[in-house]
Amino acid sequence: MKCSDNKVIYTALIALVIGAGAGWAFGKRSTCTKEDETIVGQHCDLRHKMVRLWTDHVIWTRACIVATMQGTPDEHAVHERLLKNQEDLGQTFAHYYGVEKGQAFTRLLKEHSSIMHDMVYEAKAHHHMTDKTHQAWQQNEQDLVTFLSNLNPTYWPQDEIQPLLTEHLLLIHKEVLARLEGNWDEDIRIFDAICNQARKMARIFADGIVDQHPAHF
User: Fold this and answer.
1) Nearest to 202 by CA among 48, 44, 98
2) How far apart are CA 34 and CA 24, in angstroms?
3) Which of 31, 40, 49, 54 is the most buried (most CB within 10 A)?
């Protein structure tokens, strides 16, 4: 075996050790920051979980948009995976707000995905949303805003949650149009913005739960 081969193997082993250590730190001793305050333990674990779930949400939403627009054979499977993410989000909320509220949240998220699916089909066929789908899209947004603000009126007031969800839906709509037009640079730019905005939502939801249910943490 050549010396250079030994070096490659050694470097790979070091990377594995560092990666394992980072994974242990992430799972056992992870820390986050909330403004100027460092947060640890279960609060931070919830932050990480929410970020993972909302990142999954936008990743699988994008995969669903691509599969639907291209008509690929995985379209149904991808859509089912997106619905599973929404069940996971509902179950996370149910842990703090009860099964009924968790299921209600899941229903609203699944409705959101169903409307998005219709929007993609209409964009393919007509290059725009029909009035019916646009109205359903806006109504679903309002239903989500009302649901969340009623759930936690102190930390998720309507005047703060509304712009957050409006921005999310607007970015999803822009993503569909960018792909429809084959504007790939814009498509990528928008998806980066969607991911950043999803992480912001995740932190707001996690911190709101902790603020409202401190006994859990």
Assistant:
1) 48
2) 22
3) 54
| pLDDT(75) > 60 | yes
Q: Which of 128, 121, 82, 89 is nearest to 105 (CA)?
A: 89
pLDDT at 172: 94
Q: pLDDT of 96-126, one tens digit each?
A: 999 999 999 999 999 999 999 999 999 888 8
> In Å, what is the CA distance from 21 to each residue of 12, 30, 152, 191?
14, 12, 37, 31
Distance (Å, whole) CA 168 – CA 183:
20
For residue 177, give the amino acid letter: L
Domain map (residue ranges) of the chain: 1-34, 35-216
pLDDT tens for 163-176 read 999 999 999 999 99
> What's the residue count for the chain?
217
